[in-house]
User: Fold this.
Amino acid sequence: MTARLVGQVVEEVFRREAGRVLATLIRLLGDFDLAEEARQDAFTAAVEQWAAAGVPANPCAWLIKTGHNKAVDRIRRDAVFRTKVQGREIASAEADAVAVLEDADDTTFGDDRLRLIFTCCHPALGAEAHVALTLREVCGLTTQAVARAFLVSEETMAQRLVRAKKKIRDAGIPYETPEPPLLNQRIHGVLAVVYGVFTEGYAVTAGTRLVDAELCGEAIRLGRLLDELLPINPAVLGLLALMLLHDARRPARVSQDGDVILLEDQDRTLCNQAKIAEGLALVDRALSVAGQVSPYAVQAAIAALHVRARKKEDTDWPQIVGLYEVLLRLQPSPVIELNHAVAVSMVDGAARALDLVDSLAARGQVSEYHLLHAARGRFLQQLGRPIEAREAYRSALGFATLEPERRLLRWRIASLEGLTTGV
Amino acid sequence: MQYLLLIYANEAEMAGRSPAAMASMMAEYTEFTKGIVQGGQFKAGDRLKPTSAATTVRVRNGQAATTDGPFAETREQLGGYYLVEAKNLDEAIAIAARIPSAKIGSIEVRPIWPPQT
Assistant:
């Protein structure tokens, strides 16, 4: 095989297997950094050896065995690395590793990837650490890319990762997938991390971009991986459906100039039909699993109803209202209440919706949520109360941080000027 | 791995409980301790006298200064501890969650440095 061909093969193997190789090496070596070095060494060795010896039948197993051997050599030679392995018996570790690798198959590697995800999302680590570790270790993003996604310096992100890995070592966080009763609890933490990555990409919190496609893509990839590793899990199916249906609308959400386009004004023909089809199929599967309905699945069903409407006039608002009511019973939250009120306005009119929003505002939990004030503004405008509407939009502007949303609010306020002159 | 489980609760609230509630909690503690002794996880454990009985010592510039009370005023106060042997953090957390005071206070789970070899 020529050097160039070997290079291409190794690159292809890297694309497919780098994640699994890392996950298993972390289990065998008990250390993230050691495992990453070992993986690097293994792929380098592959480039050197596969030209002459040919590509092995099970490249993944070859890479893991090679990486593990190199790491053990390194541990023996280097005192610094030895202390990292915290007094583990190297001899017994080696024997275990070889025995396991002989039978290594998709299940083994899949189990290790699941262990990695659960470890990165362990409750003993903070929320920031969950996302940073998951993006870095599971998704394979560089530290620089993760830093960029969260608008912090590379050094800050590097420190965050170092601290998290140190906590895992010092506190003895196990590299395990929790057993079934605990698994169901812990999976919600994992899904919250995945959804957090997606929503961060969907609406970057303080800046000029409205959407970061790369983060959305990573979140969807994580969702697919979880579906592969934990099949027929309604929460996983529901979340994946939800993300695909939202992501499908991405091209329609933002104008050429980076302005917000509201759902009702979005050009549906710009939506990604393949993602919609996949999302709709997943919603059906999520809702057909026996047992308690997952809130993610309900949210996905709502997204599905929006996406099914060819034109905004075709939207099945009464069903959407019903679904929001189911969601509120499962997972009461002020944001969902607000979305429910907006849906109610489409069925019962602005007056009824305004009552709901005012009662929500009176409870005081979301007084600083710009969308609450924006919704009040919309309803007041529809009810022909422009002065109050303008006040509400002004409050919304006071709390909105995204520039495209601020532009929209300023435009709304300006459009009311004609109706409120002399006041 | 060994972990120190530090039991924090609001002393005033604890002191204000009825004798029946106190007795019930004591019984739960006895039950819990027996469980981890039988399970081989128990290494040590004690109930501490309240912070009103505490004294704090600091030595600065060769001078020992002794003050009345705990090292700092906190909303919850240290009331007891268990030293346990656990396979990993998850096992230590599971033990901590069963400590009776966990329902009303906070249990800090602190790993212990292994002995220097």
In short: The longest helix of chain A spans residues 3-29. Confidence is low (pLDDT under 50) at residues 86-92, 205-210 of chain A.
